[in-house]
């Protein structure tokens, strides 16, 4: 799998200037990039300042993921968290779509399992094989690759804490955008 660079139109939709812009869709020249709007200087500073409303950024997306799907229904946030948790945009579509639907701690646990090169435990190796078999299976017999007890072993208190801390860091990082840090075009 490979990634491609796409030009995406972003719009400032919050009332405060520091609010990060949201992706709208693929850039096709549909708006005037020189359009300005008034914003509050900060959340606790109501002075109005004029700023550009739109910008275009280049982001890396997997070839199979359309820009429209990435931007739809604020799904870009889910994708950003998935890649920031360590999933590679180069992984297969089936793998990434499975991981996308998990909660943060389960995502992180599965990503760590998928990134492990050498297993010290036969149990973790069997969990890895079970996960891979489930992801690539066309006819799944179960709704999840693991039993509840296996999930409990995989998603321990340390993984939950790490996922929470990473989620907090990502939530407050206004510069993270897409699979790689975006560049203004």
List keywords for this structure.
disordered C terminus; alpha+beta; elongated; two-stranded antiparallel ribbon; 185 residues; 4-stranded antiparallel beta sheet
Description:
This protein has helices at residues 67-71, 75-84, 93-100, 104-115, 122-136, 148-154, 157-171; strands at residues 3-11, 22-26, 36-42, 45-52, 54-62, 183-184. By secondary structure, it is an alpha+beta fold. It has one domain (3-184). The chain has a four-stranded antiparallel beta sheet with strand order 2-1-5-6. A hairpin with a 2-residue loop joins strand 3 (36-42) and strand 4 (45-52).
pLDDT < 50 runs, ≥5 residues? 174-178, 180-185
- The dominant shape is elongated
Category by helix and strand content = alpha+beta
As a percent range, the share of helical residues equals: 25-40%
Question: Taking Cα atoms only, what radius of gyration do you get, to the nearest Å?
Answer: 19 Å
Q: Hey, roughly how much beta strand do the residues contain? A: 15-25%
- How many DSSP E strands? 6
**Multimer state:** single chain
- Neighbour order of strands in the largest sheet: 2-1-5-6
Largest sheet: 4 strands, antiparallel
- What is the count of structural domains? 1
Give the integer mean of the pLDDT values: 88
Number of discrete helical segments: 7
Helix-strand pattern, N to C? EEEEEHHHHHHHE
N/C terminus separation: 25 Å
């Amino acid at each position: 799998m490979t990634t491609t660079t796409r030009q995406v139109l972003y719009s400032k939709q919050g009332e405060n200037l520091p609010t990060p812009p949201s992706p709208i869709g693929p850039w096709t020249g549909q708006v005037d990039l020189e359009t300005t709007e008034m914003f509050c200087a900060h959340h606790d500073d109501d002075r109005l300042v004029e700023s550009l409303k739109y910008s275009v950024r280049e982001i890396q997306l997997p070839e199979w993921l359309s820009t429209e799907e990435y931007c739809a229904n604020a799904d870009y946030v889910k994708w950003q968290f998935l890649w920031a948790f360590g999933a590679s945009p180069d992984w297969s579509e089936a793998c990434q779509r499975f991981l996308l639907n998990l909660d943060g701690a389960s995502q992180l646990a599965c990503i760590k399992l998928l990134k492990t090169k050498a297993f010290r435990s036969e149990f973790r190796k069997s969990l890895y094989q079970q996960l891979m078999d489930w992801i690539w299976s066309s006819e799944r017999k179960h709704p999840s690759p693991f039993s509840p007890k296996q999930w409990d072993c995989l998603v321990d208190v340390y993984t939950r804490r790490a996922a929470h801390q990473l989620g907090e860091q990502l939530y407050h990082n206004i510069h993270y955008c897409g699979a790689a840090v975006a560049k203004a075009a």
